[in-house]
């Protein structure tokens, strides 16, 4: 599975939402001086995302967009709010998470722009290396399919467990084929994983929640799933998502343009202490990337 995962990472690679302010999901123009302002809502998760998006919102005003940043505390509600029209955009998830949501909930939310990319890291107050975990040690991981799956793949890369080669990019604990130390895998809400550091022998946490808890993957992590974020494929790049029929809205395009700037890159580095890096480039074709991921997942499921 290790080689397969590395290949997946090279081949493919814990987002943002805007909502209409008063008409159930359609952007609303409002006169402000001589300029028409598009009022939108964006859904984010955690304080790190909030700080970045509040900075984006301030700059979006110059493009005629009044951006209201809505903060959520979990990874479930922002996509549900986007799907039901309560939000125009959201910005909290990577491509694999978005694909999993669309598949499980029979939705068709679309990625419209890359935001940042994070490493996933293991942390511990009890051991200096995952090699030092004792028999029966407890490791906490996120309980959602994609982040939990990525955490298990990290543990496999570290040599702690082995996973069925047919499990794909989102394995579950049931896909563990070898667990020599009988490690106990505890699944928790992603936001609670870094908070359980004192109770578990190790945790594998999303960077945004780890940073919120005062941790930095490159300074505090005892194992990182990639030392070079540029080599992580598109599946773990975080994205801005919206409803399919709004992917070409001019106001939404303006928000993506405002986000994908050097100012935002600097803000990301500031609020994450360098833990996150920009994921966008001038040559992006995010629609093609999403289609390729979909085909890859379907191919894995057919085996």
TrEMBL record:
Keywords: Lipoprotein, Membrane, Palmitate, Signal. Its main location: membrane. InterPro entries: Lipoprotein_NlpA. It holds the Pfam family Lipoprotein_9. Residues 1-22 form the signal peptide. It is a lipid-anchor. A lipid is attached at residue 21 (S-diacylglycerol cysteine). It is found in: Membrane. The keyword Signal applies. One of its GO terms (cellular component) is membrane. Belongs to the NlpA lipoprotein family. PANTHER family: D-METHIONINE-BINDING LIPOPROTEIN METQ, D-METHIONINE-BINDING LIPOPROTEIN METQ-RELATED. This is MetQ/NlpA family ABC transporter substrate-binding protein.
């Amino acid at each position: 599975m290790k080689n397969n995962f590395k290949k997946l990472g090279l081949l493919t690679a814990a987002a943002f939402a805007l909502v209409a302010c008063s008409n159930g999901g359609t952007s609303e123009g409002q006169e402000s001086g001589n300029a028409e302002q598009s009022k939108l809502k964006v859904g984010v998760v955690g304080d790190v995302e909030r700080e970045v998006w509040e900075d984006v919102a301030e700059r979006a005003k110059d493009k005629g967009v009044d951006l209201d940043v809505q903060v959520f505390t979990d990874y479930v509600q922002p996509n549900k709010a986007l799907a039901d029209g309560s939000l125009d955009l959201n910005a909290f998830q990577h491509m694999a998470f978005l694909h999993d949501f669309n598949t499980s909930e029979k939705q068709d939310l679309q990625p419209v722009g890359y935001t940042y990319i994070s490493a996933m890291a293991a942390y511990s107050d009890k051991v200096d290396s995952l090699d030092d975990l004792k028999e029966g040690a407890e490791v906490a991981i996120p309980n959602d399919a994609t982040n939990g799956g990525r955490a298990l793949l990290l543990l496999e890369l570290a040599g702690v467990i082995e996973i069925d080669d047919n499990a794909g990019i989102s394995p579950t604990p049931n896909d563990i084929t070898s667990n020599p130390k009988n490690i106990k895998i505890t699944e928790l809400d992603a936001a609670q994983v870094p908070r359980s550091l004192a109770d578990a022998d190790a945790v594998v946490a999303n960077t945004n929640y780890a940073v919120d808890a005062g941790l930095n993957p490159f300074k505090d992590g005892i194992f990182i799933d990639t030392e070079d974020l540029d080599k992580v494929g598109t599946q773990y790049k975080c994205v801005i998502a919206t409803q399919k029929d709004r992917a070409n809205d001019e106001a939404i395009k303006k928000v993506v343009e405002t986000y994908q700037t050097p100012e935002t890159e600097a803000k990301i580095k500031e609020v994450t202490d360098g833990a996150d890096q920009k994921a966008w480039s001038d040559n992006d074709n995010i629609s093609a990337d999403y289609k390729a991921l979909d085909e890859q997942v379907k191919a894995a499921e057919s085996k």
